[in-house]
Design the sequence.
């Protein structure tokens, strides 16, 4: 990265901050090549963290060191950077970002969200685990669900420490590494099949008013480590308070390590405020014969971005990604997925669907599948479909396959359309009026993803959510 | 008023509200209330002469139509008159316009009417939207029904059935009540109950798709059912099931317009008239003997030109 490129970011920043950053970073030489805005933000995060926990665990210390090192040479992404070509992050950049203090989250006696889950759950408010709102029980021996700082088992700590990530994400990944107060660890020992799904509930309570410049940030970080032959189903939920117009920024990272023949089912529902920023990383390592299934429904956020990175580290893996995004307002829903296959006989199926139902709504999909030289006999399929229900609604789709191996079966398809004419006619021919037919077809469009949630209760919840959001839209047409 | 309307066909409580003329063909009320399938097994003699002149149901005059997109002319002056209780069969070579005719009747957007008229029950059918035609008792079974992923068969049927109930001013049925109504109908098409939970036509075999069309007909009822090649792609057993179901739904009041290539179906369902279509026109009309000649000697023997 040349200095001239970096300079293009500088006009956004006031000078005094430049001076301040150089005094706090350990590496003064690098600092001159850094984006002052990024460094200032990193510094704010570091300050809040060191105030909360003065003596971090080696794992956290290492994570923070690597992350701050990376941040020194990471500029704020612009539309000129390919991964952010269609995703404008100025909403976050222009805000006054303030970490939520630990103390403000522990006094809650009940959640400001009405829905209750019967699943064992860990509740995280603004990035901090709240024990009194969590309900963890009945996990088999050897399973650990909790904060890294509460982890007593040396053997698990040793295993976890092997996975301090060397993965290179983006700016947001590294900001999370600096700002995460602790790490939520989910550990499943060898051969252990956890029957009950584990629900991780992330709730953003502290938010500023819509027109305020201040943006409270939380940086939850989760590590899921499933040993050889283990199995677990995880439901990850992000929501806001009942008033759905607060501004906040959830910058979350989930790392999943799946051992030999192990299996992880991952459900992800994001329903945060329409004035919030939601940036999420899901980074998965799959060992041989392992299986990973992701099912996602995202409807919230003014700026919502999910980065999914799946790295194959052994042969015969199975990966299924099913995602549904809904832009119901002036908002952007972005999925950047990358599946890297380096070993033979991988199997993958990806379906991404999105509906944009607002003239200022936007959806972005970048779906990359890399089939490298040794990944022979890979069977990879990808399909994306988008429905634009309003004039000027926008979708930017970039499905891309990079195939180097020569004995593979790969397919991809992309369609952006209104509803199918002949399907609509089939309804009409049976006496159903066109508005009702459209409604049914729009719901069925989402249903294809929703019905893949492994838990019935999650399916029902997602259905209810989509109905609640779409019905007023469709009736007003 | 739809005569084959499920709400009173199979429910004894509703029978009493019907006029006396309907009791004529319901030979025994007791018999009728036993099981839904009883009516299927009852023979469907084409008893159009139930006293009084049969009513005019459909009158098609000089109908011409083109493909909306390419403006290619398909129908070039079709004339057809049907009375209540009649079974008409349209035969003809591939590309003669049979299916187009069927689709035009139900208002398919792929075709544009360029001339002529269609009067159905005294109304101008061309002025009606497809869903209004359906609610007025017109039903077409699709030759290749479209798959609708994400919509279950039972939800689809429930929506369609409730649309009809609304039209009749009756309260809509909730999912549980509807299940009770629809479940016995499955016997009619010889399908298992899980058929209802599958998505509409998704992954159905050819036979299952046809059975599903007939199931819809049984649930919704029709004054005029247009069966477009309901026999194509069926094995012998499936053909018998489908034909039996169609027969079972037949009453002296409702009418059938069948499109077929084969005489086989006509062994099960007795036609009143057979029409031969050629190059967008009906060129010959007659009784079953036409079909027999056709089977023996091909279309050349009865070509209108």
Sequence:
């Amino acid at each position: 990265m040349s200095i001239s490129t970096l300079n293009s970011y500088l006009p956004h920043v006031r000078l005094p901050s430049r001076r301040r950053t150089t005094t706090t970073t350990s590496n003064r030489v690098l600092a001159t090549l850094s984006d002052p805005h990024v460094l200032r933000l990193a510094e704010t995060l570091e300050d809040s963290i060191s105030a909360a926990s003065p003596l971090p665990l080696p794992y956290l210390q290492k994570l923070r060191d690597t992350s701050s090192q990376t941040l020194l040479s990471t500029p704020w992404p612009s539309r000129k950077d390919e991964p952010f070509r269609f995703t404008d992050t100025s909403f976050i950049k222009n805000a006054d970002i303030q970490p939520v203090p630990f103390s403000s989250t522990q006094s809650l006696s009940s959640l400001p969200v009405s829905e209750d889950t019967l699943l064992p759950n860990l509740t995280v408010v603004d990035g901090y685990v709240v024990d009194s709102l969590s309900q963890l029980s009945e996990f088999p021996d050897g399973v650990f669900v909790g904060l890294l700082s509460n982890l007593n088992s040396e053997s698990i700590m040793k295993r976890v420490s092997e996975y301090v990530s060397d993965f290179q994400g983006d700016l947001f990944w590294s900001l999370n590494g600096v700002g995460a107060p602790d790490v939520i660890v989910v550990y499943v020992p060898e051969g252990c099949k956890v029957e009950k799904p584990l629900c991780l509930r992330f709730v953003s309570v502290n938010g500023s008013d819509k027109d305020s410049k201040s943006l409270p940030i939380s940086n939850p970080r989760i590590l899921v480590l499933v040993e050889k032959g283990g199995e677990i189903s995880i439901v990850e939920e992000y929501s806001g308070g009942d008033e759905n117009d607060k501004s906040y920024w959830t910058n979350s990272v989930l790392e999943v390590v799946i051992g030999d023949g192990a299996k992880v089912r991952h459900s992800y529902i994001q329903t945060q405020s329409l004035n919030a920023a939601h940036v999420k990383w899901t980074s998965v390592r799959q060992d041989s014969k392992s299986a990973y299934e992701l099912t996602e429904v995202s409807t919230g956020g003014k700026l919502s971005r999910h980065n999914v990175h799946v790295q194959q580290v052994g042969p015969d893996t199975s990966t299924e990604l099913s995602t549904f995004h809904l832009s119901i307002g002036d908002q952007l829903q972005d999925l950047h997925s990358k599946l890297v296959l380096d070993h033979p006989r991988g199997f993958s199926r990806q379906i991404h669907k999105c509906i944009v139902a607002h003239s200022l709504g936007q959806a972005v999909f970048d779906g990359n599948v890399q089939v490298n030289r040794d990944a022979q006999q890979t069977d990879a399929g990808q399909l994306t479909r988008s429905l634009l229900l309003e004039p000027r609604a926008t979708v930017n789709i970039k499905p891309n396959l990079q195939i180097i191996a020569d004995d593979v079966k790969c397919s991809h398809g992309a369609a952006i359309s209104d509803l199918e004419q002949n399907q609509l006619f089939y309804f009409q021919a049976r006496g159903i009026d066109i508005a009702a037919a459209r409604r049914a077809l729009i719901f069925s469009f989402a249903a294809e993803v929703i019905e893949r949630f492994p838990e019935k209760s999650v399916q029902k919840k997602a259905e209810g959510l989509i109905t609640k959001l779409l019905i007023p839209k469709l009736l007003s047409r | 008023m739809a005569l084959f309307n499920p709400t009173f066909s199979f429910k004894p409580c509703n029978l009493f509200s019907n006029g006396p003329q309907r009791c004529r063909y319901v030979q025994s009320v007791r018999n009728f209330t036993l099981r839904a399938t009883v009516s299927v097994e009852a023979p469907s003699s084409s008893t159009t002469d139930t006293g009084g002149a049969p009513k005019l149901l459909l009158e098609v005059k000089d109908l011409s139509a083109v493909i909306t997109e390419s403006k290619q002319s398909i129908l070039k002056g079709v004339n057809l008159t049907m009375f209540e209780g009649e079974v008409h069969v349209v035969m003809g070579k591939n590309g003669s316009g049979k299916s187009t005719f069927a689709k035009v009747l139900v208002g398919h957007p792929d075709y544009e009417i360029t001339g002529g008229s269609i009067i159905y029950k005294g109304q101008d059918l061309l002025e009606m939207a497809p869903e209004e035609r359906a609610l007025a008792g017109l039903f077409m079974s699709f030759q290749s029904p479209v798959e609708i992923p994400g919509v279950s068969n039972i939800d689809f049927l429930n929506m369609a059935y409730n649309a009809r109930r609304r039209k009749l001013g009756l309260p809509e049925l909730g999912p549980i009540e509807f299940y009770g109504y629809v479940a016995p109908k499955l016997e009619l098409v010889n399908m298992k109950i899980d058929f209802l939970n599958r998505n509409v036509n998704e992954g159905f075999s050819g036979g299952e798709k046809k059975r599903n069309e007939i199931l819809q007909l049984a649930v919704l009822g029709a004054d005029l059912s247009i069966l477009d090649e309901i026999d194509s792609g069926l094995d012998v057993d499936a053909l018998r099931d489908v034909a039996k179901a169609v027969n079972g739904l037949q009453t002296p009041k409702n009418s059938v317009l069948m499109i077929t290539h084969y005489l086989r179906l006509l062994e099960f369902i007795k036609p009143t008239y057979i029409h031969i279509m050629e190059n967008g026109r009906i060129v010959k009309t007659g009784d079953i003997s036409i079909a027999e000649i056709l089977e023996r000697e091909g279309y050349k023997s009865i070509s209108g030109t």
